[in-house]
Amino acid sequence: MREALFIKRNSDKWKAIEQATSAAATRPDPDELVANFIELTDDLSYARTFYPDANVTRYLNGLAAQMHRGLMQNRRDDRSRIITFWQYELPLLFRQSHRLLAVSALIFGVACALGWLSAAHDNTFVRLILGDAYVNMTLENIKKGDPLGVYASQDQGSMFIQITLNNIYVSFRTFIFGLLASFGTMAMLFYNGVMLGSFQYFFYERGLLLDSVLKIWIHGTLEISAIVIAGCAGLTVGNSLLFPGTYSRLVSFKRGMKQGLKIAVGLVPVFIIAGFLESFITRLTLHPIVSGGIIFASASFILWYFIFYPRTLNRSVTQ
Fold it and tell me: Which DSSP string do the residues of 92-120 spell out, in sequence order?
């Protein structure tokens, strides 16, 4: 984009930001300052890349410095910042990433189907994916009349810590593998999808599919959903490298990395809740209505917070 066109497209916005910054000296609004500062620094990064010695770059740099001082003077306490992050910033990030979230879900769903079909046509496939030790233990539990007894085989506290940390590790690994131009993230999604599909077929083959669903998906609804969303974070990073658009590849990568990291961090509470459910609730013998209620509540939360609420919030912001 030519410098003159860049200035023409954004000059009104910069004037409005400059006026808002001056007004903030007497009537501070930290949320507005943060939003304007992010918008301005994006433009500054673009100007530094394409017009490093231009007057517009020096102007934006000075305005950004002025806004930074205002933020330092008027910043709210950490508790308010955390609330703002969960209530506004993170959902708006998800809205920007819905297309990649759909791609992540598609990859995972196709992998699940392939895992199911592979297990149905190859008796050794489940052992290849899940391991002989797990399959033999589960077969033994089925003989004892407790096919999912694995969830009651360990102390709740240590199980909670171990599972939660492992889930967070898998999530961040899925995100970080996006650095391999998205292919690493896609491979992680594919592997986990194949594992889930073959796992569910293993129980279906033995007439225990409904029992497994009502037991496993008490925690699996949040856990699996979070892995798919972590895949979205990884694809965000990978696509920032593959498709930088009007930004330089480095600027695009920094933007994608920051956005993807925020999404990955935002999943930590989901994994904590999923770990709690798996460690303390899944092991219990619950009435199917209770199990179904927990699964429905978990699915409803995922759909609301990651799909519907971001859309509603985005419409209210852009109107």
Answer: HHHHHTHHHHHHHHHHHHHHHHHHHHHHH
